[in-house]
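Memo to structure team: turn this sequence into structure tokens by end of day. - J.P.
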Amino acid sequence: MQIDVTFPCDDGHAMRAVLTMPDSTSGRRLPALVMVYELLGLTDEMKRVARDLATEGWIVLIPDIFDRGARPLCIARALRAISKGEGQSVDDLEAARRWLAARPEVDPERMGVIGFCLGGGFALLLAMNGKYKVAAPFYGEAPDPMPRSCPVVASYGARDTTFARFAPKLQKNLETLCVPHDVKVYPDAGHSFFTHTPRGVLGYLGRIGPLRAEHHEESARDARARVVAFFREHLEGEGARRDATANDDVA
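Reply from structure team:
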């Protein structure tokens, strides 16, 4: 089930969002993800990705962080927030997390963040705030330094000459922190390899530019499998074992 919702930001702004629920919750409180979209915003493709993640039993919220006026200004605000590590967009994402954590279907102890492109940068930024169990950035800008982090599963495309350079830095940061991680660079993929890029002029420019932005099915399948396995271990964790124990007790 996928529905349009709003949640209150700290300044009272009612921000639009899309909430995606698994087909069945079985009366249990489920792990949940804050999903931060790519530069193109809240597209049908981002909604499709959320529906796909929900099939794994996770509740997914996509906050529309461009819901504060003209898109160019919102994008500039978001990029500045990633660069500075603070700002309106960071505050809005925290408000989204709190709203999601307070829902009765959600286990607030099992919250993750996943992001793409611009959202990948936010996913790595939020990985450091101590409020998420796991983060899955796709082609995200790696912050420096990283004083702390939750477990991270990160994916980059080697043909993306703009963002692939962040993978070694992220790998080194996480190794230094002794944090569980899985950072992989796909040799045949570029930027946005996980999603289906737009057609037309915009898609063409993305493919021929330094990002080499284009869907790469083989890499996307492998990245999805890695994210799911990593989330099973680090997002579900104790909660999944508690559920299994409860089911055994009932049986």
